[in-house]
Amino acid sequence: MKISLLTYTPEPEKLIAAAAKNCYSATDVDSIWDGLTEEKTDQFLQMLTDLGHESPTEHASFTFAIEGVSRSLLAQITRHRIASYSVQSQRYVREHGFEYVIPPEIERIPDAKSAFLRAMEEDQRIYEQLTEALLKEHTERLLAQGLPKLEARRRAEKMSIEDARYVLPNACTTRIVMTANARSLQNFFRLRCCNRAQWEIRMLAEEMYRLCYAAAPTLFAHCGPACVDGACSEGRMSCGKAGEVRTHYLHLRREE
Prior knowledge:
single chain; alpha+beta; Gyrase A, domain 2; 2 domains; four-stranded antiparallel beta sheet; 4 strands; 12% strand
């Protein structure tokens, strides 16, 4: 897994403070902006947190490059609908020797890992077999329709991998470019940094949180799982490790 913060709104904390202050001020926005020192910005963001006034945080956005994650993770992350996603297409990109994610528990148990690796090899073999069978039939049909050889081959390959991809496993890796505003990210971190989140998306969320906190520490000061700055939100399903989680996030913030 590789995650990088490609870009984000310049001066995100000042922008949010200015947008929020605009709601309560009779002066013009330029004057509000010019009057916001770093100290005043931090104070105003803290006030917004205390008031629960979250909508101004939607003005700042963050864009991430996410690589080496599974299609299983993709199905989870796109459930966070207030974000934009650009995903490597299996319709247009042929999966020659596809890479895959091995869950830690499978990696840990030799017999399970051996079975998993055999399954990946078999999936690759069948994928290639299907692609070639479809490619041959589609190419012949398109040539019979009068298409030039190169054009027939190009169209046939796209049609072939579009259907052959159905045998590819959830473990198959993909690349994602994701953009979300700060309010959506705060919600994402609250849900996906939790110990009860699935391991892969929790790993992703924690790294994204680390990058966001480094870029805007005041804005993301009270993020992470619910138990970090309050009570656990999982009720009877709690992991029971709130103290450990709080310590972990305090250490993570100090490192930044």
